[in-house]
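hi! just following up on the protien thing from before. the input was this:
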Amino acid sequence: MAVTPKSIKEDIDGLISELIGKGVCDDSNFSAIRTFGSKADVTFSGSEHVSIALGDIEYAGIYRELADKRSYNMRLVDGALLQMMYRVEGDELLQHRLAFYPSPSLLPFQDDPDAYMRDELFIEIVQRRIVPFPLRFDFDAREGVYIDVAHPKSHLTLGDVKGCRIPVSAPLTPRWFVEFVLRNFYQTETHDFVGGLPRHKIKFPTSITANETGLMHMVIPY
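and the predicted 3d structure came back as:
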């Protein structure tokens, strides 16, 4: 499938529907396409608040503001927030921002523990969570923004640590991002969230440089 704003939107919305069906997503904002000139954003209601995460405040405050303003594509059953934003120019991907914000306090569980104690899925997920920290996959192909090695076009930031930019071989499709989160933070012996995900429909070309491949980096299957 060609990479277009419509194909990216369909990828995101198909994943949201699948996770709602699996019972792992309990609130969502389906994606929307906004065009301006030759560019198009695949975004969501509440995306105007994502800059809150750039503020110099503690993580619990960032999470609370994002959650209160419903600034996410998906809120998972344990309160974790997933954000997926893409910008396309012509037929090429220009930028993406894919973020995962775990709940620092599991407030839904604290508000209604009896309901969740009857929910085997929630119990299994919560028991696996130890120290919640955010992570973000960024891609930016704009001239003057990316710098070989120092600021790779595609990179992973852990914990919103400034200067943490782990090179990634290519941009992430929504499908790869959601699988990464589910496989590494939610998959259990009794609940397979990855096996039933929609098939891969779009691909992005490799963006990593030769110098960056000489560093420890992540590889996106192509």
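The chain has a mean pLDDT of 87.
Residues 5-213 form one domain.
cheers
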